[in-house]
């Protein structure tokens, strides 16, 4: 299957700082990328949908000014957690897909964020 | 988006066949059914996807009845390494309308 990478795999930062997470589709063009957050022993929660070249669509309850998403190319989307706080500590996962109906959505390995 | 219902947990033994059934009564005409496997601290891994009838690949089979209101993931001869959470999702799976909403998944515990 297609490969999606994330960088970094884990990051520790101080409260109040911003953290950028990259999501790349390595061998296909991803017209759409999705960002999820997962807390321990819980399911994945969709945060936003990101289309190349346009603004992201955020799910209800997700602060768009806190979680900045940029999808500048067909192979790269970034999630920036601004002014991070300890409650933002979580496992962030991206996924990517093309535009063909039924095309499989592939997930990245995830990024573990710990805010001290 | 169609909601899915799966058993919260299942136990099995090595070498047995495991069947996990998912209900999706409100599936739309253009929705696909996709199953993912997730290990702790990893992203979900694609297992299998289907639209109707039966789909088989090298790791699993997916059975979908004619009304498409449910589906069954079949894992032949499981091993300890198949212990994971399995998610059933319904949606277009692609493009900007392809967002997938995860349910609680099924935690499969394979015992020796």
What are the salient characteristics of this protein?
heterodimer, A: 116 residues, four-stranded antiparallel β-sheet, 11 strands, B: 112 residues, mainly beta, five-stranded mixed β-sheet
Biggest interface and its residues per chain? A-B, 32 and 26 residues
Number of helices of chain A: 0
How many DSSP E strands of chain B? Answer: 9
Give me the number of helical elements of chain B: 0
Shape of chain B: globular
Largest sheet properties of chain B: 5 strands, mixed
Largest sheet of chain A, in brief, is: 7 strands, mixed
Question: What proportion strand of chain B?
Answer: over 45%
Q: What is the N-to-C order of secondary-structure elements of chain B (H for helix, E for strand)?
A: EEEEEEEEE
Low-confidence stretches of chain A: none
The N- to C-terminal Cα distance of chain B equals 38 Å
Amount of helix of chain B: under 10%
Q: Which segments of chain B are poorly predicted (pLDDT under 50) over 5 or more consecutive residues? A: none
Give the CA-based shape of chain A: globular
Distance from first to last alpha carbon of chain A = 36 Å
| Average pLDDT for all residues of chain A | 92
Q: Structural class of the secondary elements of chain B?
A: mainly beta
Spatial sequence of strands, sheet with the most strands of chain B: 1-9-8-3-4
Rg of chain A to the nearest angstrom? 13 Å
Derived structural class of chain A: mainly beta
Q: What do you see in this structure?
A:
- Helices cover 0% and strands 51% of the residues of chain A.
- Chain A has 116 residues and is mainly β.
- In chain A, strands 2, 4, 5, 6, 9, 10 and 11 form a 7-stranded mixed sheet that branches. In chain A, strands 1-3-8-7 form a 4-stranded antiparallel sheet, with no helix packed on it.
- Chain B has no helices and 9 strands.
- In chain B, the strands form 2 sheets. Chain B has a 5-stranded mixed sheet with strand order 1-9-8-3-4, with no helix packed on it.
- In chain B, β3 and β4 form a beta hairpin.
- In chain B, 38% of the residues are buried.
- The A-B interface holds A 1, 4, 6, 31-32, 34, 36, 43-46, 49, 51, 57, 91, 93, 95, 97-110, 112 and B 30, 32, 34, 36, 41-46, 49, 51, 87, 92-96, 98-105.
């Amino acid at each position: 299957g297609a490969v999606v990478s994330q960088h970094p795999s884990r990051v520790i930062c101080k409260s109040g700082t911003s953290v950028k997470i990259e999501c790349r589709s390595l061998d296909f063009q991803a017209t759409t990328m999705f960002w999820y957050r997962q807390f321990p022993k819980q399911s994945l929660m969709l945060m936003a949908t990101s289309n190349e070249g346009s603004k992201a669509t955020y799910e209800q309850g997700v602060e768009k000014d806190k979680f900045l998403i940029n999808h500048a190319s067909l192979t790269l989307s970034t999630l920036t957690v601004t002014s991070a706080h300890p409650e933002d500590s979580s496992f962030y996962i991206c996924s990517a897909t093309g535009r063909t109906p039924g095309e499989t959505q592939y997930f990245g390995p995830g990024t573990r964020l710990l805010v001290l | 988006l169609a909601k899915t219902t799966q058993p919260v947990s299942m136990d099995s033994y090595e070498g047995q066949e495991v069947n996990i059934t998912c209900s999706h009564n409100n599936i739309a005409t253009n929705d696909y059914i996709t199953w993912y496997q997730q290990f702790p601290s990893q992203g979900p891994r694609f297992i299998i996807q289907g639209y109707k009838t039966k789909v088989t690949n090298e790791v699993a089979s997916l059975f979908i009845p004619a009304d498409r209101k449910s589906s069954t993931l079949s894992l032949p001869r499981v091993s300890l390494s198949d212990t994971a959470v399995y998610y059933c999702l319904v949606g277009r799976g692609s493009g900007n309308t392809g967002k997938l909403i995860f349910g609680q998944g099924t935690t499969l515990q394979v015992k020796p």
